Amino acid sequence: MLQVREMREADIEAVSAIRVRGWQSAYAGVVPQTYLDAMTIEGDAERRRQWFSAPPRQSTDLVALTSGDLVGWISFGPYRGQVPGAGRAGEIYAFYVRPDLIGQGVGRTLLSEVHSRMEEQRFQTLVLWVLGDNQQARRFYERAGYQPDGGSQDDVYGDTTLTELRYQRALG
What we know:
Largest sheet: 7 strands, mixed
Order of helices and strands: EHHHEEEHEHEE
Structural class: alpha+beta
Mean pLDDT: 94
Number of helices: 5
Number of strands: 7
Low-confidence stretches: none
CATH topology of the domain at 2-7 and 58-170: Aminopeptidase
Helix content: 25-40%
């Protein structure tokens, strides 16, 4: 049975493992391989520990567990910019599921919990950014009611520039 709860400091290593493996799986062939190969769970965990211990944080972080194993992580909070006409907007900052469990309902469960919590906090819109080349993630978000709104931004990885698309979904 899948359980969702707030992330704890003791979850940092497992969250970092899911994030790094998620990047290496989802972005193979999209992000330069040298960038993906340089990612380490230890390095990610160290940055996450610093972030976790530096209050005040605006984000809320949830983890999904099955049989005591951490299998997913999502981070969300207020939107870090302006979305014209979106009302009070929240943002999903990061969202990863263990690659071998994609398609098993972990992501849908975490996303549903975020929708409920953001609605309780009276957010009207939820926004996220997704790499334009990440077709699997884009299909997932579109099935969950998100649509691209025309916003985009470029990220540079070494000598490769990749475009992220802004997606949004009305809440409530």
